[in-house]
Amino acid sequence: MFLNVESVSVRYGHRTARAAVDAVSIGLAAGEIGVLLGPSGCGKTSLLRAVAGLERAAAGRITMAGRTLSDAAAGLHLAPETRRVGMVFQDYALFPHLTVAENVGFGLKALPRAEREARIAAMLALVGLGHAARRAPHQLSGGQQQRIALARALAPRPELLLLDEPFSSLDADLRESLAQELRTILKDSGTTALLVTHDQLEAFALGDVVGVMHDGRLEQWADPYTLYHRPASRFVAGFIGHGVFAPARVAADGGRPALQTPLGALAGTAECPLPGAFPGDDCELLLRADDVVHDDTSPVKACIERKAFRGAEFLYTLRLAGGERLLAHVPSHHDHAIGEWIGIRAEVDHLVTFPREAAR
Length: 360
Ligand SMILES: Nc1ncnc2c1ncn2[C@@H]1O[C@H](COP(=O)(O)OP(=O)(O)OP(=O)(O)O)[C@@H](O)[C@H]1O
Fold this sequence. Notes:
The protein is of the alpha+beta class. The chain contains eight helices and 21 strands. The two termini are 41 Å apart.
């Protein structure tokens, strides 16, 4: 791997304080985009800052392209400016008294003038703002300023680009288009990048690999498809997408093993074998809103408790006769009233089960 973060911990204050980052390991291949995702306070920014060298790792090692950047056991900690790492922060902090071109050229002072100007022009072209070179930052929109911040960070050819919530001060529409653009720019320039966000759509739009953090720990480090369809923990399953945990039981269905669920028996497949030994064969099945299909011919009926319009679809909150609650995405031309009973069935491609939690 190009970037290796090995069992890194970050602690603020006393050695015995709870770790903000607790023995986290991740790796990125050259040119890959990694995203750290998780709720506020889970430690994403602290991990990013440890990679940047802005925080000292209390334990673990960080290496990049064969160089050791941090090694807590050996007491080694390279200063941020010697790590060949570029950074883009949330508040894009362009220098207001410099032009756009001067901002982009800020880290290139050591280059001969002609080379420097060529690099500035190339970076401005990369972010689609070649025409804005002579403007002042305040003459640009928020999204344009953030693209200049990106050009400025990429100009000195960092080996790794770190981005901390780069779009959080922008409005939702702009965020989505910039996320797509950012991915194209990073891929076109072959940049290896690690980005922090709490927005899962942004993480999925950008990341080749996404890490979900919770209470300082890394719960899973995987591609977006795997995170969604094969969450490794109950926390990841609950944090990503819409879904519920339905009580289920491993039992025989006409002699074949099956999972008995409130929506009927579901058979395992070679790809998704039925779970092995749950105590008493009881477990909980993750049922995502897109695993539950509206079907008037189904014998299973559910009452609509709530519905949220999402344009192309509704997100229905449903209650079965037995009291279990489910979520379902239903095309928005199926506009049923709250309180109405509709037919539903399960269409589950991936059986994801967890041990049943006693207190639930
Ligand atoms: N400089 C600091 N001094 C003391 N504690 C800190 C410091 N920075 C962060 N923490 C604590 O470390 C934990 C992780 O914080 P961190 O900022 O890394 O989380 P985060 O996931 O990036 O959160 P957010 O999305 O809100 O920025 C939190 O409990 C936070 O209060």
